[in-house]
Amino acid sequence: MTVPRIQLNDGHSIPQLGFGVFKVDPKETERIVADALEVGYRHLDTARIYGNEEGVGRAIAASGIPREQLYVTTKLWNDDQGTASVHEAFDASLERLGLEYVDLYLIHWPSPARDRYVETWHAFEELRGSGRVRSIGVSNFLVPHLERLLGESDVVPAVDQIELHPAHQQPATAAFAEEHGIAIEAWGPLGQGKYPLFELPEIAGAAAAHGKSPAQVVIRWHLQRGHILFPKSSTRARMAENFDVFDFELGEPEMNAITALEREGRVSAHPDEVN
Ligand SMILES: NC(=O)c1ccc[n+]([C@@H]2O[C@H](COP(=O)([O-])OP(=O)(O)OC[C@H]3O[C@@H](n4cnc5c(N)ncnc54)[C@H](OP(=O)(O)O)[C@@H]3O)[C@@H](O)[C@H]2O)c1
Prior knowledge:
The chain is an alpha/beta fold. Helix content is 40%, strand content 15%.
């Protein structure tokens, strides 16, 4: 299956559907990522703070898949924001991954109490210049954080990775991103299993109508909304289920009904509170 790609504002493109490894046990990561690669995923989303970059790297190395066919994202943790520390943290991530470059490097959270994300971004610009990072972006940045970054740099983030699912769509951030050519990556695309999305009649009904699962309907909704996403599952059957979403399409009324589920239903922390 060829996954559609989303064009980024820097000339690179990214597979729209990938596989995320938040909360994947480092001891199990190699096996789980190996399963995901066998299922067909070619886009992997990890982070320094997940503690599993090594496992991701080992699975990539063992897979024999040519590097250019893979898309790998990792993220800078809050403690490493600053000027000098960014380079050191990046080198360490690259080494743990066993890669010569990453496709996308993200500032994980704005961490406003530190007030260092602008200088961190300038260090990211240098990293991109070094060729060891193809694209640079941010995560959990809300409109005020993006406005400040855009006011102090000529480099517009390629993506903003934010919590986004039918019950929490962050319309203001999404609209700002669209206006400025920043692609939206939806984390927690299934509500992390914390929001009871799958039982909602709009989702369960569409699933029954298409002979698909509620998770597949939610993933399809994201794809048709233009989001980049990488649902996580430790179970191979669910990895396959989440990847099997290219043989049906939600109609406009179904899309509209799911979009109308917005409830400001954040399931994780507010970006101003993660420091
Ligand atoms: N930038 C950030 O701050 C940030 C924060 C959080 C996440 N992320 C990224 O986004 C990725 C995805 O988000 P997430 O992992 O938090 O949440 P998610 O993908 O919305 O949900 C994962 C949960 O859903 C379950 N699940 C997966 N497929 C399912 C299916 N087909 N049917 C029923 N349940 C299913 C999983 O359980 P099983 O594993 O048991 O199948 C797991 O409990 C992460 O892995 C990470 O890469 C980024």
